[in-house]
Automatic annotation (TrEMBL):
This is VWFA domain-containing protein. Keywords: Membrane, Transmembrane, Transmembrane helix. The lineage of its organism: Bacteria, Candidatus Moduliflexota, Candidatus Moduliflexia, Candidatus Moduliflexales, Candidatus Moduliflexaceae. Residues 1-78 form the Aerotolerance regulator N-terminal domain. It comes from the Bacteria. It comes from Candidatus Moduliflexus flocculans. InterPro entries: Aerotolerance_reg_N (IPR024163), VWF_A (IPR002035), vWFA_dom_sf (IPR036465).
Length: 614
């Protein structure tokens, strides 16, 4: 046994003070008596040291001394050091991927995993801490370290499997960061083995114990769903769907296509084990609304039996053209049937921001514009205090020597050999990115930040041969699409489950709302456009509510690893595993509470003694 605060032994100095207090007695009172022989006989019987005998026969005094002794020892924080079993803490990692929704004879795989995880926690020592991590597309701590095992089990019960794949590598990395370096902590992963990297992940973490959840073998799933425009006519489309049999036996099912809840196509697919078929069907009409393809099959996995597409037809694109005249730009804009142009020959600073707000894109040709807080701008030798690009000089006949081949502004376009009579020499902040460069100056730059998206051309296109090159309409189309996507061409708006979806918003939008499948609506403050929406863990149709209008995008699984519900056989018998034995280590057991309880019992005894004497 040892004490942690020996300085507290100074409280034992109260014992002499207590003795002194008991030695003090009242001054004797003189009384006249007839004879002293009786008192003399009494003194002979008791002896001469009356004071000492009075102390030794004083039971309350001894009890009070014992109380001081016990409390002084308690204040020193005595501990008893002994060898005790040392158990590490436990991290429970729950796979919440789509394949965990596979139905088995006794419930879904995830329900079985929840039960096994709860059984594991029930077997733990009450002193072991538990953490719960949800392993989805993104890793998240569902329950921090706690010794409240009931709370940890409740956190596991509150988890739900998603329709998205899981990235187990991220989850295991997160879990490993919480392991205590000097303890025998362990990680327990409850998964069905759909992640094909599982074998190497298990070998990378010797602290990991794997619990494989099996059950459910029948699945026919949609692995691809796309629309594409036909080359024959503008309103002709082809629908393509890929269906695969992930079962060990042949399966067949009807395949139906609906557009805005109206069935437009039906066929039947019959596939052998492991076989895949691609179905292509023609479609004529307006490309708008919600397309849904569905397999009418009773299998063990529902998430891949249907897929959705939000069909987005071309929309009117309002362009504000501030120019004193530019033949090539005007002719190009007229070639787009859905581009509506508002022309300005002069800029009024007082109304400029409002005019930009009312248009999808503003093209400014050789005019300086006032400060602009938001909008999509194409600046042709035009400058604004809001765009960090400044003119410092001019250069004659600059030569294109470098360009960003990965920029969407130059997709399918080659700007080399472009002849330019004169260009502005500019300097810029790092936030403005050079797209086309000459040795003297950037010739095209892009800027995206603070509510502004802009493309800067540092030369007058009428004093170059760019308008007569094949690349000109391609580059201009790229510019317009980058400044305001999803309006020039028909498209399908969807994301794969778990991946962020970019939502493009009007420049004047400060707040909008989304509604996930099932009716839950959430408001969002606009911080940037596009706004990256990340809550895409559920397959279905999502609403975007902006300015009182609603549009849609969809989320699909289309993931063969998740649809392949029969994982490959795993044999981890030869993998190094964490030691299962329980080690012993010195443990300090505090004793102060026992001493305080003994002091309280002694105090009660002293009180009873006082009552008896009284």
């Amino acid at each position: 046994m040892s004490i942690l605060s020996p300085v507290m032994l100074w409280f034992l100095a109260l014992i002499p003070a207590l003795l002194l207090l008991h030695l003090l007695k009242p001054k004797p009172k003189q009384m006249e008596v007839a004879n002293l022989f009786l008192w003399q006989e009494l003194l002979k019987e008791r002896g001469g040291n009356i004071t000492f005998k009075r102390l030794t026969n004083n039971l309350p005094l001894w009890l009070q001394i014992l109380i001081i002794l016990l409390l002084s020892l308690a204040l020193t924080q005595p501990v008893w050091t002994r060898l005790a079993q040392q158990r590490g803490d436990v991290i429970v990692i729950m796979d919440i991927s789509a394949s965990m929704n596979v139905k088995t004879q006794t419930g879904t795989r995830f329900e079985l995993a929840q039960q096994q995880a709860a059984d594991l926690i029930d077997r733990l020592d009450s002193r072991q801490n538990v953490m719960v991590i949800a392993a989805g597309y993104d890793a998240a701590v569902a329950s921090a370290w706690t010794d409240d095992h009931a709370a940890a089990k409740q956190a596991i019960r509150d988890l739900k499997a998603t329709d998205a794949p899981a990235r187990l590598e991220q989850s295991l990395f997160l879990a490993a960061s919480f392991l205590h370096p000097n303890q025998d902590d362990t990680m327990h992963l409850f998964t069905d083995g759909a992640d094909r990297k599982l074998r190497e992940l298990v070998s990378a973490y010797p602290q990991l114990t794997l619990a494989l959840i099996s059950g459910g073998e029948k699945n026919l799933g949609i692995t691809k769903f796309e629309f594409r425009q036909s080359f024959a006519a503008a309103n002709q489309y082809e629908i393509m769907a890929a269906v695969k049999n992930f079962s060990a036996a042949p399966l067949s099912a009807p395949l139906r296509l609906f557009i805005d809840r109206k069935q437009v196509f039906e066929t039947s697919v019959a596939l052998e084990a492991g076989e895949e078929d691609v179905v292509i069907a023609p479609y004529s009409g307006v490309m708008s609304g919600i397309a849904k393809i569905e397999l009418d099959v009773d299998d063990d996995f529902d998430a891949d039996n249907r897929a959705y597409l939000a069909l987005n037809a071309t929309k009117d694109l309002w362009v504000l053209l501030a120019s004193k005249g530019n033949f090539f730009i005007e002719r190009l804009l007229e070639a787009y049937p859905n581009i509506l142009v508002t022309r300005l020959e002069a800029i009024e600073p007082a109304t400029w921001q409002e005019q930009v707000r009312r248009h999808d894109i503003a093209i400014v040709d050789r005019m300086n514009i006032p400060e602009t807080t938001s909008g999509n701008l194409l600046l042709i030798e035009a400058y604004s205090p809001s765009i960090p690009i400044r003119k410092t000089g001019e250069v004659e006949f600059p030569i294109v020597t470098n360009w960003d081949r990965h920029s969407p502004l130059l997709a399918n376009a080659d700007p080399r050999n472009t002849r330019i009579e004169q260009a502005s020499v500019v300097e810029s902040d790092p936030s403005a990115q050079a797209v086309i460069e000459s040795p003297e100056t950037p010739l095209m730059m892009s800027y995206d930040g603070n509510g502004l998206r802009a493309v800067f051309l540092g030369f007058d296109i009428e004093r170059s041969d760019l308008p007569i090159k094949v690349a000109f309409p391609v580059i201009m189309s790229n510019l317009l699409n980058w400044l305001n996507p999803q309006k020039l061409t028909a498209s399908t708006l969807y994301a794969t489950a778990g991946t962020p979806f970019p939502i493009y918003l009007s420049p004047d939008t400060t707040e909008f709302a989304t509604r996930i499948p099932g009716g839950k609506s959430v408001k969002h403050a606009v911080t940037a456009s596009p706004f990256l929406f990340t809550d895409t863990n559920q397959v279905g149709i999502y609403d975007i509510i902006e300015g009182g209008k609603t549009r849609y995008f969809t989320v699909n699984l289309v993931n063969e690893d998740e649809s392949n519900i029969i994982p490959p056989p795993y044999d981890f018998s030869n993998q190094p595993r964490a030691a299962a034995s329980v080690e012993t280590a010195p443990t300090q057991q505090p004793l102060w509470m026992w001493l305080v309880m003994a002091a309280l019992l002694t105090l009660m005894g002293e009180w009873f003694s006082w009552l008896k004497v009284g």
